[in-house]
Amino acid sequence: MRKVRLADVAAVAGVSMKTVSNVVHDYPHVTPEMRRKVQQAIDELGYKPNLTARRLATGKTGMIALAIPEIDHPYFSELSRYIAEEASARGYRVLVEQTLSNPAAERAVLNDREAGVVDGVIFHPVSMNSMEVARLKRDVPVVLLGESTMPVTADHVMIDNVVAAQEGVAHLLAQGRRRIAFLGVVEGDVTGSTDQRLLGYQQGLVDARMPLDPRLILSVTDFTPEESARAVREALEAGLGLDGLVCRDDRFATGALYALRTAGVRVPEDVAVVGWDDTELGRWATPTLTSIAPDKRELAATALQLLGERIDGYQGIGRHRIVSHSLIVRESAPVAAAVLSS
Amino acid sequence: MRKVRLADVAAVAGVSMKTVSNVVHDYPHVTPEMRRKVQQAIDELGYKPNLTARRLATGKTGMIALAIPEIDHPYFSELSRYIAEEASARGYRVLVEQTLSNPAAERAVLNDREAGVVDGVIFHPVSMNSMEVARLKRDVPVVLLGESTMPVTADHVMIDNVVAAQEGVAHLLAQGRRRIAFLGVVEGDVTGSTDQRLLGYQQGLVDARMPLDPRLILSVTDFTPEESARAVREALEAGLGLDGLVCRDDRFATGALYALRTAGVRVPEDVAVVGWDDTELGRWATPTLTSIAPDKRELAATALQLLGERIDGYQGIGRHRIVSHSLIVRESAPVAAAVLSS
DNA sequence: GTGAAAGCGCTAACAT
DNA sequence: ATGTTAGCGCTTTCAC
To answer: Domain A161-294: which topology?
Structure first.
């Protein structure tokens, strides 16, 4: 009683393979009687269509790849969930690829389509910029996530990082904060994501005619909270006076909160902190974290929409979509007292 | 210049398909000259083997499914990362399936293998117990994660929850805690996972000849921190005196910390808290969270080992593997002063 | 409405 | 060491 094939069902039901196939696919024009007869044979034999064979025959896999740096980074795991849900709603399944920011792994992602594994790719690159992506990919449907300023042949979805960072700074300025730091510039980060946030931070200060102090820009060597905590600790020890802090992401903010707490600095009384990504990490931090929140659901839906169009044959030039964001105000950087009392 | 096939390469190189296949697979017995000639044709044409076709021909997909309740639950996202890494080391790719604890979705997982999508399944069931899994799965290689006491035809990997919970309780008792609560029993949870942790909690108290107070067992309606915070808040409002708390997972612990903090209860001075899973959520909580830590790496490696054996044809009865765990002591439940001064 | 047969692209016997 | 060829299981024109 091994593998039951379409042909077996056809034989038992006494019909052709085509008819069985029609029943399996709910093809409209089959007589009820035929349908019943075939269905019975299917149930009887416990027939399951072989997806691999179907894929070979149709050339469609019904799968998309989601290539992200780390599966367990809160932002990416939360985003993955939305992507998975949106994909599922559109009849796609998701193959999650962890690139660990490794260039070779990132390159390999774009080959998956060519190897017939997936129909398209949603890709958050870290080690290559969009020009390289454009050069590498040939006719693979790709939607890029994250920051990129170059128009390329792939589609892009992102939030307006510059504006978002400006809003974060403005929020702190409205509370009377005057020494606002930015954490953190990551060494070796070539994506421009941090650049845009940093740019927005500076623009926010310039807009308010505040001085720019380069020492207020904190650098880190990687994306971990440990590194972020170290950077903040050293800044405090160096006597860097600051009363506000805009973080590149919630993980950094989490490390920062830890460093501030252990140094005896009160948040938000002494230093107000703004995170980025609105992850669960920040929602339950102490104090709870004010954070710039990309609309992840909209991000996922937009990415799938664009990718779907490409898979369905759209060949046009790369499209850019800006999805909305908001500032979720929590304890670490509450609404200004002035606003409250007004 | 569309799809380049194996046959095209063979034609250009002026050899047979078999020879091309040999080169592609690094088959040893090919003359260097042949290899060079073929390789040149491959590069020239930009040939990429079609994985789907290969899968059809070999019957192996090189993929395994990982079916978990939620992609973005910290425990599962961290576990996923280890699974993905171990799988990758063994030449497998991982298809992550989010079941959302939905029975239909869980059932569908077991069909994937039969449909030829994956070679095997690593499955953390929530809505079905292992008997049901055993009944459903036919000859699908499956490794079960999470708690289950029944010997079945599938393999199991888990930690010893009862012992782990006992250790958590013992840790609190050693600090002189006398009113230790358990959070939380989840309504509708049929997996026995919580049961075992609860059992260990009770056993730990009994071992120390402490009284069991049913009011110290806190119930919740779902797995969110919100629910957990609610349960703790209500317990405090009801005047339930407690000085220690063992949580079913770090998410619950996170919610508990929040509720305790907002109620003005100090941790660990007034209430010491032990979490479960050792996730990033707890590592950066305030105070940092003492947590029972399953060895996730070992868990992943063991699961892949067992699954690999099944895929390679092992047919024996279900095996049970207990992997190690430890108690990671942090601020929320530090080492007893008595121990420190000894 | 239903049947017959030619692929989809690759692998693995078997042959040379 | 390399070539030939029959599948793998399903889809899909194209007749009937």
So the answer is: Rossmann fold (3.40.50)
